[in-house]
């Protein structure tokens, strides 16, 4: 970090160690302003969760009403993720152009229009148009929320605040499941349309709520608005000292001289984002290359382990397990949503205490066991002519176990980790790339699951997911450094050596310890 030593009373310590001292010596309370901003930014993500949850039950009635087959169902369910891919890529550039806040506002407007199209659909083609529009909006929403939360969060609670989009997605999934059950009593042609159209209502409120948030301080600095950025940093970070140091970090990353202290300064801007994408994909440094591998890996394994197959097709899974009543299938699905929501809430309080790596490895290990056992129970049921109550109970238990392990680690950490590791000038495009990998993988899984289990049996499909999750566990253990408690700028130093990052981490801890010691000596 550039700049001269900072003084606060009798304390005089090196700038590179300042934030480390603040974080080690103090355990500040949660910043309520940052908490409120993160919650508002994340609420739009709830609409993605609602779409995922509601579609799992709506397809039962859509299939009956529109007389469509399983392939059309797969496309209808999964295509939103591919449209979301387009939205997330566009949103990376939009977020740098109009700001993080207005990107989230635009997301709500697009989702509102898409939900209305789906709610008033008269045929399959019209429904697909609605899915396209909503998918673009969802891509904007996910990218905008993750980026915004990472950039307004203090290092001491960044995991807690950045996990909010995943929390809201899970709440949305639960609301979608409840909506399925509530509207399932209506006539078929009305019920599923109300299920899908109800997603438009929250968007109206969220457009105005998001406008009450401040803009991201990092985006403000990139626009040369240092005065506004400083005000936001002082409100969202734990101390004024941390705000000053963070502002200096952002200025350095944005290429602004440290002696530029005016409220508004001129910043050299690129005429387009081609240079950023070139640096990110075509000519990456060893550090950026390591970050890219981790980003692609964590998002790929998050979705390829089959979570959307479970969440989107849970009524079909329970039908294969021996639960024949659609009413009972939907009720059991609500239990899945409740379980997933409870454990994502637990995860928000563990992320900044236990660290990303520990939770991720525990989560993935539990998912492997749950998926393998689920595959075993479904295989037993599939090969038995009699109804096996113990196998049905085991199947339901393993579905609940799987979503619980996913929610406590793999679910929130993919987004948090990606938002922490990219350099400032690559962050928007890097996060959009992660979201793109996430959504296209999810789309492939959700668009092929029915065909997959028909080809290799439903038990075989979950054995396959278990194997993929096991490979993911090895990847995480070898390649992903711990980022808990580090500033976004410090995190960048951990990357550059795919399997040798542990030595860098050890040295950083030693340096921080020395910095804390020097700070204590200077105050005596």
UniProtKB/TrEMBL annotation:
It is a multi-pass membrane protein. Its main location: membrane. It is found in: Membrane. Coiled coil: none annotated. Keywords: Membrane, Sugar transport, Symport, Transmembrane, Transmembrane helix, Transport. The chain crosses the membrane at residues 33-61, 73-95, 102-122, 128-148, 160-178, 190-213, 330-351, 357-381, 388-417, 452-476. The keyword Transmembrane applies. This is Major facilitator superfamily (MFS) profile domain-containing protein.
